[in-house]
Amino acid sequence: MVGAVVDIPVEAMARFTAAEARLYPMALTVAAGYQRATTLVALVADEVRRSCPDISTVLKRRAELIGLLPELAAAATLSLGELPADAVVDAASALRCRELQAAGAAESFRMRIAAARADGVEWLVTEADPADVLGGSYRQVETHVPTGSSLIMSIEAGGFLESPTYTIELVRRGEESTATPSHVWAYPDRDAWAAAAQDIRAGLSGAS
User: Fold this and answer.
1) Which pLDDT tens digit goes with each residue over 12-26?
2) Which helix (H) or strand (E) holds 92?
3) How many of the other CB atoms lie within 10 Å of CB of 197?
4) Contact 106, 56 (CB under 8 A)
5) Cα-Cα-Cα-Cα dihedral sign, residues 83, 87, 90, 92
6) Is residue 165 helix, strand or coil?
7) Which pTM does this prediction carry?
8) Is the Cα dihedral 28, 32, 36, 38 positive or negative?
9) How far apart are CA 188 and CA 158, in angstroms?
């Protein structure tokens, strides 16, 4: 479905995490090996971009890509050496799956904006993720539908004997929906934070 955000299965995520943990720390110890690893990951990523339009296809091609990797490496005058083929393929698959998820999320948001505009809704609110809230971080995004600008309301829980941090980020969008440099403000308490947000909302409403 266009615009759908597809979750990556837990077992695949575990493979992706393990693969990246095996390959990328080499940057600190074996520079040549790291360069070869990233080059091979890029080769496989290009292959899955060309042939895998969705996450399901990426995951189904894992065994095939592992077998294909020596051929891709040879075509680029490279060898695997000591690098594990499965880790290279999993790292490339992780990259492609994240790209597909990001594209799906962006399309889903565009569809929500279009529906809100059609219904005459001025503000579209994306609620904070409950998992983040449990971890001490609150982030709610309020998008002003007429202008496309976004108000990002954030709270970070303080540590021991520390107060929470309250911030507002305003991301304005131009005529071509390109984001301009954002403005970020910090506030001493929740009341000041909420009052400032109300003023910014009023300013955007008056400008549309």
Assistant:
1) 999 999 999 998 887
2) helix 85-118
3) 19
4) no
5) negative
6) strand
7) 0.72
8) positive
9) 12
